[in-house]
Amino acid sequence: MNAVLPSPTTIAALVKIGLLVGGLMTAAAYLVLxxxxxxxxxxxxxxxxxxxxPLTKIKLFGLGQPLADGLKIILKEDFTPSHVDRVxxxxxxxxxxxxxxxxxxxIPFGSVLPPxxxxxxxxxxxxxxxxxxxVGVLWVFALSSIxxxxxxLGGWASNNKYGFLGGVRSSAQLVAYEIPLGLGLLGVVLAxxxxxxxxxxxxxAESGVWYAFAQPxxxxxxxxxxxxxxxxxxxxxxxxxxxxxxxxxxxYSGIRLxxxxxxxxxxxxxxxxxxxxxxxxxxHLWGITGSGQEVTWIGALLRFGVLSAKILGVIVFFMLVRxxxxxxxxxxxMNLAWKVMLPLGLANLVTVAVVEEYRPxxxxxxxxxGAGWVALxxxxxxxxxxxxxxxxxxxxxxxxxxIRTHGPLDAEHALDTDLVEA
Amino acid sequence: xKPTDPAIVWLEEKPLGLAERLYLPLFVQGLTTTxxxxxxxxxxxxxxxxxxxxxxxxxxxxxxxxxxxxxxRVQCVACFLCATACPAHCIDIVAAESPWPDxxxxxxxxxxxxxxCIFCGMCEEACPVDAIELTSLLDLTGRSREEMIFDKEKLxxxxxxxxxxxxxxxxxxxxxxxxxHAGPQVSGSQGGAP
Lengths: 422, 194
Prior knowledge:
By secondary structure, chain A is mostly helical. Chain A has helices at 8-42, 65-75, 86-102, 136-157, 161-192, 197-207, 211-214, 216-229, 241-244, 254-279, 297-322, 330-393, 411-421. Chain B has a domain at 64-171: Alpha-Beta Plaits. Chain B has helices at 18-21, 24-39, 81-85, 122-126, 152-162, 184-188; strands at residues 64-66, 91-97, 105-113, 132-134, 149-150.
């Protein structure tokens, strides 16, 4: 009998997967509503506020909208154009959604539960589907790279120039921004000494200094790069509506379009999770959540709440930035990645490496407090230097002025040549 | 106009200052603007529950009405000027000899096809006796095309509905010689917007 029953660990993992997938799908649906609300509020409109409980007149501020949106898009005709590569066309949305969901296997969504006392289950139970994964960060990055394949395949299989351009742009952009993303991340990994995301959060909770404060340059680089990875404005070139109709999902409709859109929102959620976990202290908040492994039920829920609130804050920031910044041009996007973010990320990495290398030596000379201040001051000095360099050298600056071939002084002459050419 | 035209004044963009090159000040500025709009009062009007505010109902071009004079008779003298002025040809008048001594003709039937009407206000401009006017009623609906053809009675009833809120624009012309001045209900409610 015991051989047939799955072990308590498996059951725990399945429960966590169920909660996580259900929660993520609901979150993605409600983030669409949040996105529309914020878009409306920023434009001085009220936004969707009509749909409430079906078959009643109760409106509930429009909280029924995701259900209506989902039903509508599911019931729409799922049309496959005749000119597509059918296998890849069908595989692309599945691939992208599967990859973006699987990322969450290694992402902790809270701290730990207090001991449950269930035999066979290791205590305390962490809020993490795959708790023992030593390569958590690598898993996240590997799968987010696989999600690019979904975009590429969708664009390629559509056999449509807009889709293709969207896919190509996406691949170029994601390859370019994965490097600053990785550099921003490496600083954190160096400082925490682990690739486990839960360990990174614990390290911040133990020291009380979030890595956003300890590595400001790395934070900025990572933040910008995750905007680009999530393909959010101002880096949403893969699906720039004004230029590319719908980008890589131009030819998709119905439920397969839904899969793409959900995957996009999951990318944003992933980016928010990573920003919060790696730079904003995860579940840690000074004086409220504590920092140890021993928690009560209230403490566990509090940590979960703090993490969720931080993630929601980052997502709202994502959405506000969308309405504050115009889209980059593609050359500006590439300049920013290679000429600004890459050097800044390298500078951050070197600074962090130096700080971590000499921290014991400093602690010996100055005492732990003095060493802590130096370890904070050096990255901040580097941050201001890097910021000033980026501003003064403007390697990403391009001349936006129209190229004027005819000056007003030689108008007569230019007019003649114009006529000749015509 | 050619780009070489001497009348063109070419403006040069200013070079970026230090604060602009440092990027963050401008970003904070933009984000502040966004955040300010996020919480600012909204301009949306939730229509069925909430009526849109009409700036000046006296010059708004909504549903038509046929004005009545002080004795309750239709003011129209069936001169056909409105039907002639109408660019959409939506006014149909059948004139008949007037039963009253102060005018020669009156409209036996007066129909406006509200579906053809483009609400340009030309009829109101053309009318010599200010008999036809556009009100500020803006939600004009019906269940059939026939229902949307407004006859004389309906247009007169629109007057009854709106006369208090929107008095006739020139009361001095109302009625015949015996009733050259408007009644107290017209002049008394000047400017009484809903």
